[in-house]
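Protein Record: Sequence and Backbone Structure Tokens
======================================================
Tokens: labelled as protein backbone structure tokens, with as many entries as the chain has residues.
Question of interest: how does this chain fold, as expressed in backbone structure tokens?

___
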Amino acid sequence: MDTFVAELLFGGFFILLLLGTPISVALGGAAMMAFLVLDKNPITFVQIAFTSVGSFPLMALPAFILAGALMETAGISKRLVDIAESLAGPITGGLGAATILACLFFGAISGSGPATTAAVGMLMIPAMTKRSYNTAYASAVTAASGGLGIIIPPSIPMVILGVSAMGMIAPPEAVAKFGQFSSISIPKLFAAGVIPGLLMAAGLIAMNYFISSKKGYRGLSDNWSVQDLKVALRRGIWSILAPVIILGGIYTGIFTPTESAIVAIFYTLFVGIFIHKEIQFRLAVAALRTTTWITGRILLILFTATAFGRLLVETRMPAAIAESLLSLTDSIYIIWLLIIALLLFVGMFMETLAAIMILVPVLLPIMFIMGADPTHVGIVIICTISIGFQTPPLGENIFVASGIGGETVERIVAKIWPFVLVSSFTVVIIAFFPQLSLWLPGLMGYK
């Protein structure tokens, strides 16, 4: 019966996707069919859905989305881009490097891949094109860098991952060896994402340098200008302070991640109205409208994916997959490679948050059996899923960059594969060396 229900879940899900239904409808429809086959009360489905969106940490979701939208209208993103350009200076492919650095900075305040791509791309893709960069390449490097938005904290997918892991029951054999875990600390996830995020950015910068050397994309200037850097830092000091205040408040315990999102909104409004004086009522209303639309879409996916995931756990799907993997090999490195390959494949076809909600209940118990730290597993999942933003056919960042640059998706895809490869290689390094994720949380006192 368990096998039949699992086949019904995944079969129904993929059939509905092929018919063109939205992913939330596909998840909910497949879960409801399984509920009816199991003769469960459909009210239970509604109760699971309601409970999934009622957790306190989830309140941070719309607040972070609104903060990111407002920061673009407040002029914060533009000043971060100016700082990145000053830092890039004479480096070969300097504008490409500046784009990656700008996405790194903006990711620290937006928490979203497509939002980071849009905010930075609006400024950098035209700038690169004016300096004789191939438009498809300019769009590709922006789309590839936008994925950093969900790795550098604070991150919306990290909040979702932490929520989806709440109350998860570890397999008995893992509990006997390592003890039980009831949740993944969201602040610890934030801390764990810093070094992997910097590594992912370093890989992209190295690939941009290599390609730019071959294509002859020169730096922004002949040498670094200390004066230009000083001017950019002076104009952008309030922009730099945004992630410092948000993350500093979380890590020092002054406020929770949920409260920090509200602080981010008020900080942005203060800077945009009184310091930069760039926020307009019309643009603020547009930011609210965008926040409402994105939040509603995410919550629909969240509660249908929760019901879907609950049925997976009840049918012992995670345990079955774990047994299958462990029967093939007992090497954690080979299992990591298999899991990364699975995540890369899923990221090509499935929306990021839905993939997290479906796969976390499956993958966490497997890796917990192998002795992996749940926080490290979460970071590898986030880093790998972030590559899905730059891989077709779903690749949201590609479509965002295409809309900004006016280049066809096919040409952008042809230029983006080197960045996909270097990002995948970096994820393997992060997976094989857990201390890259766990050193900073340990230094900050997280157990």
Summary: The longest helix spans residues 281-314.
